[in-house]
Amino acid sequence: MPARQPRREPGQGGRPNRPPQRRRPRDPVRRTAYDVLQAVDERDAYANLLLPSLLRERGLTGRDAALATELTYGTLRGRGTYDAVLDVCSDRPVAKIDRPLLNVLRLGVHQLLRTRIPAHAAVGTAVDLARSVAGPGQAKFANAVLRKVSARDLDTWLGIVAPEDETGRLAVVHSHPRWIVNALRDAAGPAEVEALLAADNERPRVTLVARPGRATVAELGGEPAAYSPYAAYLAEGDPGSVPAVAEGRAAVQDEGSQLVALALTRVAVEGPDRRWLDLCAGPGGKAGLLSGLAGERGAHLLACDVQPHRARLVAGSVDAAGAAAVVDGTRPAWRPGSFDRALVDAPCTGLGALRRRPEARWRRGPQAVAELGPLQRRLLTSALESVRPGGVVAYVTCSPHLAETRVVVDDVLRGRDDVERLDAPAHLKEVPGLGDGPYAQFWPHRHGTDAMFLALLRRRH
Predict the structure, then answer these.
(1) CA-wise closest residue to 355 among 209, 235, 255, 236
(2) pLDDT at 211 > cutoff 50
């Protein structure tokens, strides 16, 4: 009988002690997509911030990263449609399904109905994922439900689950809450609302901005944009791999966002034009563009945000012609009439950016419009008081909702004879289809941009 070997103490030779290693998920692509869906549900995470960090952390690149991105954003965009299908295929209402399992099912339905992944692979991987996050019993439930889903294609399912009323049909077919369908119909009109809803579910192209005086469009390496002279479309790849972006001389910024800031700089002002204001500047996209343009004219931009962490982001975006400050825009720290130009990029529901932030459609309800309204009015009033007679204000939202756009402007200007509305589309003549004025409205289905709203207002002498 072999002699018993003495137990080795730590540090006495043999296999070295190692810290426990986190096990790599069996299917890291789908697990990454699932983890983002769960974080969005559980803690209101932003997919566009969380997903890139998880891809880096888990070493997912190339085709794996592309698939994880498609599964994440595709599932978030299609959630309303998929829940309607699941309601038919499950023996319990969607509202009664535990969230971890429900997100697995949504991920599986997306693969079955909107990708080329074979049905057996879509079901099998979803069942494996359900087993790991919810247990064996729930895995059997997922298998039964997804096999029912796989029996029909998307068009057939839509014919079954879409309601007969037009709002309900649009909500299910294009995966938007009913209240958003109604709001977008009011803003875009009945003839265009379906095209707008469909555009919200398309993958947006990545648009870069070359910050004036710091980078050129040629450095961005993409296709020059249709409208903005500072923009280029990135065909593929990580924007961070573009040297000008990595160095902070360029950035990712929607073309509509660039153009509303540019329009402010195009309005002629009499007298001095040296002091510019960005009243709600975080996270700094428009401030980065404005500070470059201000520098070219010998002007200076003060870019403010009420949140310190957002003000820090702004400080990293502006150049020597700009400065960032933590300021409550509704209680400004400067005297009235201190500025020649002012931008109010007001906090809003973000209904104009649902292509880029698809989870936003499920995060907010119609009450958010009413909750944000008083703040929007206070900020616009503050901006108008901050510019001198002859100065100009741009009121901007990334939402086309009438209650956040023209209604706010009309309410603030009611009874005032010291402010005139300027023709905003006339200051963006290179862009067709912005409306008849005086306001300008960008649209995803018309312009390929976010649905940015712009009002240009001048203080009268």
Answers:
(1) 255
(2) yes
* Residue 301 and residue 290 in contact, taking contact as beta carbons nearer than 8 Å: yes
Query: Do 442 and 246 touch, CB atoms closer than 8 A?
Result: no
Beta-carbon contacts of residue 250 (< 8 Å; ≥ 6 apart): 208, 209, 210, 211, 214, 215, 219, 220, 242, 244
What are the C-alpha distances in Å from 322 to residues 214, 283, 317?
A: 13, 14, 9
Q: DSSP label at 210?
A: E
Q: What are phi and psi of 273, to 5 degrees?
A: -145, 60
Q: Is the dihedral of CA 302, 306, 308, 311 positive or negative?
A: negative
Encode pLDDT of 221-239 as tens digits. Answer: 999 999 999 999 998 878 9
Whole-angstrom distance, CA of residue 43 vs CA of residue 49: 13
User: Hey, is 166 helix, strand or coil?
Assistant: helix
Q: Say how far apart CA 449 and CA 256 lie, in whole Å.
A: 5
| Catalytic-role residue among 89, 280, 348, 398 | 398
Asked if residues 263 and 428 have their Cβ atoms less than 8 Å apart, the reply is: yes
3-class secondary-structure state, position 139: helix
| Claim: this prediction has a pTM higher than 0.85 | yes
Q: How far apart are the first and last CA of the chain?
A: 106
Q: Which amino acid is at 182?
A: N
Residue 456 belongs to what H/E stretch? strand 453-459
Contact yes or no for 443/450 (Cβ under 8 A): no
> Residue holding tokens 């299908």?
85
Q: Helix axis angle, 47-57 relative to 28-43, nearest 10°?
A: 140
Each residue's pLDDT tens digit, 122-132: 999 999 999 99
304 noted as active-site residue: no
CA angle 222, 225, 229 (to 5 degrees): 110
* Run of H or E including 89: helix 79-89
**Is pLDDT at 453 greater than 60 in this prediction?**
yes
Q: DSSP character for 45?
A: -
